[in-house]
Design brief:
With 249 residues, the chain is α/β, with parallel strands linked by helices. It has helices at 10-23, 36-44, 64-69, 86-89, 104-133, 184-190, 237-248; strands spanning 2-6, 28-33, 51-55, 57-58, 61-62, 76-80, 94-99, 141-146, 149-154, 158-164, 167-172, 177-180, 196-198, 203-206, 210-215, 221-225, 233-235. The protein has seven helices and 17 strands. A hairpin with a 4-residue loop joins strand 11 (167-172) and strand 12 (177-180). GO terms for molecular function: phosphorelay response regulator activity; transcription cis-regulatory region binding. Residues 2-115 form the Response regulatory domain.
């Protein structure tokens, strides 16, 4: 299992390497980088990598600069002494965000998540390949009613769908809501799951509508959407991990 470590602090790098040796002895560290420039050069060498650990603050900038300059298509576990970068991290290939100083139990849990996701996608691979060969059946527009008139709304303009008083609505990014004649269950079956996901029983959100994710009691997530809905959107504890992975792409 090939691992890349991007960390500019030697004590933190050594602590991570010791932790990997303890809980994931099958790991082979194929690269150690301490800056944005060094990491970009290493990635361009096309060395096979299965998993990467990225510190966020590096000697010449933030590790997010790497993602802006190079198509990083490997799973990443971020490490940081700060939690202010949490949302931006999940807009990359992040599968976890570990706070420093690194704790062995947190590292073990992050690696278990990686193994679970890898196993899940390997099981789904035959179906995914079949889906790629099958023309998409996802709808590209919906007909919404407002003031007695009907308007076709392109899917790219829809921020989220929601139910209220047993009725279904869609909200555009411009802040206009339209009545729909379908239930959320029926709508969910017609949407691209890479772009829309059920946050809870009341709301299906577009990944582009998620402005901020806040942790609340018992590992639930509070979503800040754009435009702002007239109610709180909370993701359950059971759905929180999967939702964060989905938002991160």
């Amino acid at each position: 299992m090939n691992v890349l470590i991007v960390e500019d602090e030697l004590p933190a790098r050594n602590l991570l390497k010791a932790g990997l040796a303890q809980v994931w002895p099958q790991a082979t560290i194929v690269g150690e980088c301490s800056s944005v420039a060094e990491t970009l050069a290493f990635l361009q060498s096309k060395t096979p990598i299965d998993l990467a650990f990225f510190d966020i603050r590096l000697s010449d900038g933030l590790s997010f600069d790497i993602f802006r300059q190079y198509p990083v298509n490997i799973p990443v576990i971020f490490l940081s002494a700060y939690d202010q970068y949490l949302l931006e991290a999940f807009h990359t290939n992040s599968i976890d965000y570990l706070l420093k100083p690194l704790k062995i139990e947190h590292l073990r849990a992050a690696l278990a998540k990686y193994e679970h996701l890898k196993s899940h996608f390997l099981q789904k691979l035959p179906q995914l390949l079949q889906d790629l060969q099958t023309p998409s059946q996802h709808k590209t527009r919906f007909l919404g009613e407002k003031g007695g008139d009907y308007y076709p709304i392109d899917i790219a303009n829809i921020a989220y769908f929601f139910s209220e008083y047993k009725l279904s609505f869609m909200m555009t990014f411009e802040g206009t809501r339209y009545l729909l004649e379908k239930s959320l269950v029926a709508l969910e079956a017609e949407l691209d799951p890479a772009q829309f996901r059920r946050a809870n029983r009341q709301v299906i959100v577009s990944t582009r509508a998620v402005k901020r994710i806040s942790s609340v009691s018992k590992s639930k997530l509070l979503l800040e959407l754009q435009p702002n809905p007239p109610f709180e959107v909370v993701v359950s504890q059971e759905g929180a991990a999967g939702f964060k992975v989905w938002v991160g792409g």
